[in-house]
Amino acid sequence: MTELPDDTVLRVSDLRTHFELGSRVAKSVDGVSFDVRRGETLAVVGESGSGKSVTSLSIMRLLSSPGRIVGGNILYRTSQGQVIDIATLPERKMRAVRGRELAMIFQEPMTSLNPLYTVGDQIVEMIRLHEPLSTADARRRARRMLELVEIPAADRRLDEYPHQMSGGMRQRVMIALALSCNPNLLIADEPTTALDVTIQAQILDLLRRLQREIGMSILFITHNLGVVAEIAHDVVVMYTGRVVEKSPVASLFAHQKHPYTRGLLACIPNASRDRGGAGERLRLNPIPGNVPPVTALPPGCSFAPRCSYRIPQCDEAPPLMAAGPSHLSRCWRHEAL
Amino acid sequence: MTGETLLSVQGLTKQFQTRNGTVKAVDGVSFDVKRGTIVGLVGESGSGKTTAGRCTLRLVEPNDGRIVFDGVDLRTLSEREMRAYRSRLQIIFQDPYSSLNPRLRVDQIIGEALDIHRPVRGSARRDRIAELLHRVGLNPDAARRYPHEFSGGQRQRIGIARALAVEPDFIVADEPVSALDVSVQAQVLNLIQDLQQDFGLTMLFIAHDLSVVEYLCDEVVVMYLGRVMERGPSREIYAMPRHPYTQALLSAAPLPDPAADRRRIVLKGDIPSPLDPPSGCVFRTRCRYAVEACAEIVPPLEDVGSNHHVACIRHGDPEVISQGLTL
Ligand SMILES: Nc1ncnc2c1ncn2[C@@H]1O[C@H](COP(=O)(O)OP(=O)(O)OP(=O)(O)O)[C@@H](O)[C@H]1O
Ligand SMILES: Nc1ncnc2c1ncn2[C@@H]1O[C@H](COP(=O)(O)OP(=O)(O)O)[C@@H](O)[C@H]1O
Ligand code: SF4
Ligand code: SF4
Ligand SMILES: [Mg+2]
Ligand SMILES: [Mg+2]
Q1: How far is B234 from chain A (nearest CA, A)?
Q2: Do residues B110 and B96 make contact, with C-beta atoms less than 8 angstroms apart?
Q3: What's the pLDDT at B1?
Q4: End-to-end Cα separation, chain A, in angstroms
Q5: Residue B225 pLDDT more than 80?
Q6: Residue B119: its pLDDT value, please?
């Protein structure tokens, strides 16, 4: 159980996180596996409801009831080199891991920031929770953190409240807070989704720089394939609680081995592809229908009702299959793609 | 009939009085929309897109400017005269969740709009509602259901059906696909195009997704802190953005292609407070080309050919021009 390749920080294997809703069970995460390698970024991409956030909350063990990890392992290598299984770790031990080893940032910064305390007080408290530093030393570290995330006039900003800051600035403060105890692995759940593209570009630049400088590993959750192309080394594509495709980033964009991934890329408007010679608009190619709720999945391949490649064999649920070097696909027809 | 100007907005200005002072949300905005075309309005959040869109329909009263719709300045109309125009001008909102009354069934939501325009009763009414639902790709049985029973994309279709119910000539669509997943976004964009073709709709399409605007819009207006920085035909602006802000905005958009070699212009800092905008060119605090004169002169929108207008005193500078070519 404690086997983990040297270059791997996190190995999620066959993770199952379910929500028991009366008589029905929402299998929000149903057999998800992936690795995050040291100093690299793994992007998890998928549309709304595909299970991205439930996956990240499972790893942080921040699930709210009735959500429960019902199966699988989450092997994590601590900064001391010890391998632990987060899926079954007692909550008492988990508290020492959260924040210090694994830190998380969210789409909405106010999820992690308290409106009643200054930014400085919050970072200082976070640091002192995990490290025996004096308040003065912790405050110095807090200031350095704000500088690290490129907040100008860091000294003055420490004494401001979150509401006095812009959205982009709050996002930086949340990143500073998350990084203040030097976590090994940063879990970022749509950290740029609510931001303007110009501010998104700043935050992505910042995360790339921090990764380069402090060797941090990142699990980056997004629904935006443009952002994936910018930041990921490896990509996991999720649909209805399952991984449908997994691959290094270049290989994924070069040849999609799952109709869903192919469909996602085909429906992002692209004027050079979707406009004709005279500049006239061609129709987009949407994926028909909607994502089914995880409480009412179709039998067999869960993408089948929306899939134009469907064959009779698809009535049987496909496993993840090798579809190229380091490239996996959950599609019977991956060879035909 | 395409080619003739249906809407001409000139010098549109809207200020809000707040506790902390006056916000110039829209400051002298001008653009034209030709009949049967879609004009995109882009810019960062807080740049005044929504306010400009609402002022255009007089859902918010502007402080100044002219809104000439089909030859009539809407601002000269009395409230009563304006009512006759209401049904020709419609709006679709960003948030399909909050823009529909949760207590009304879909047929009541669409029926309300019909009543304003051309009230019909009985089976004619049911038929018209079914036809509208069909038009936006919903089943007739949707009529008896409530908004919460629909997905985000379906709710956006209901919002569009409601706007179409009054057979408008002009629609302001305020970020109508921003809240949708890409697969559903593509469905709604196809629907908007079909409606544009079939009904010759004219539209002001507000968005922050630049690739959606490039694809969908005939012309683009780029706003920053309440002012127009650049406007013109989409093809021109995307091929060769002339304003440093447009250049930065386009270069910041992530492309779904890891091999794309893009020289990114990362803008420093945030959009300044609209309570205290910079003097001269409002973009100067983030502009890599800013010179002293930029603090003194409010750059006028100048025609650089082919109906392409730029508000930058250095728009003719080879350095600025060549930046636009490398994107
Ligand atoms: N507390 C809960 N109770 C019941 N079902 C839940 C709960 N939280 C999540 N789910 C379900 O689990 C599935 C996955 O949700 P999740 O939040 O992980 O999606 P996501 O991929 O993060 O989507 P988004 O892009 O919208 O953030 C959804 O079907 C959701 O409805
Ligand atoms: N009702 C209002 N009262 C005060 N300020 C407002 C109001 N509506 C908008 N504003 C301000 O006007 C500016 C432009 O806002 P808005 O038009 O919503 O921009 P956008 O749609 O481009 O994000 C912002 O600074 C915003 O805070
Ligand atoms: S297994 Fe069949 S239905 Fe599923 S994605 Fe592949 S071809 Fe489509
Ligand atoms: S006028 Fe000056 S500050 Fe404004 S965009 Fe042009 S160069 Fe930059
Ligand atoms: Mg989520
Ligand atoms: Mg807006």
Answers
A1: 10
A2: no
A3: 47
A4: 36
A5: yes
A6: 80
> Structural domains in chain B?
5-88+168-325 (3.40.50.300), 101-166 (no CATH)
All structural domains of chain A: 1-92+215-337 (3.40.50.300)
Please give, rounded to a whole number of angstroms, the shortest distance from the CA of A13 to a CA of chain B.
Answer: 28
Enumerate residue ranges in chain A where pLDDT < 70.
1-2
Closest CA to B223 of B272, B264, B282: B282
Taking the C-alpha atoms of residue B150 and residue A52, their distance in angstroms, rounded to an integer, is 22
Name the pLDDT band for B82 (thresholds 50, 70, 90): very high
Query: Can you tell me the mean pLDDT for B63-80?
Result: 96
What count of CB pairs under 8 Å joins A to B? 124
In whole angstroms, what is the distance from residue B171 CA to residue B131 CA? Answer: 20
Bridge partners of B10, per DSSP, are: B66
Amino acid at B236: E
Segment B191-218 mean pLDDT: 92
Residue with tokens 């405050």, as numbered in its chain: A139
* Residue B293, both tokens: 């004169």
User: Ligand 4 — pocket residues by CB below 6 A?
Assistant: B 244, 281, 283-284, 287, 289-290, 294, 299, 312-314
Amino acid identity, residue B172?
Answer: V
Within chain B, what is the greatest distance between any pair of CA atoms? 69
Does B216 reach chain A within 8 Å, measured CB to CB? yes
Residue B136 corresponds to which tokens in the numbers above? 């936006």
Helix axes B182-199, B152-164, angle to 10 degrees: 10
Q: What is the DSSP string of B189-206?
A: HHHHHHHHHHH--EEEEE
Write down the pTM of the prediction. Answer: 0.91
Structure tokens at B208: 């922050």
Report phi then psi at B239, rounded to 5: -75, -35
Whole-angstrom Cα Rg for chain B:
21
Q: How far apart are CA B105 and CA B143, in angstroms?
A: 7
Interface confidence, given as ipTM, is 0.87
pLDDT for the residue B75 = 96
Separation between Cα atoms, residue A63 and residue A282, nearest integer Å? 44
Reduce the secondary structure of B163-226 to three states and give it as a string.
Answer: HHCCCCCEEEEECCCCCCCHHHHHHHHHHHHHHHHHHCCEEEEECCCHHHHHHHCCEEEEEECC
Write the residue with the smallest CA distance to atom 3 of ligand 3: A304
What average pLDDT score do residues B155-169 get?
90
CA of A107 to the centre of ligand 2 (A): 22
Determine the distance from the C-alpha atom of residue A228 to the mean position of all C-alpha atoms in its chain, rounded to a whole number.
10
Supply the pLDDT for residue B302: 97
The residue among B98 and A142 whose pLDDT is bigger is: A142
A314 Cα nearest atom in ligand 3: 2
Phi, psi of A152 (to 5 degrees): -70, 155
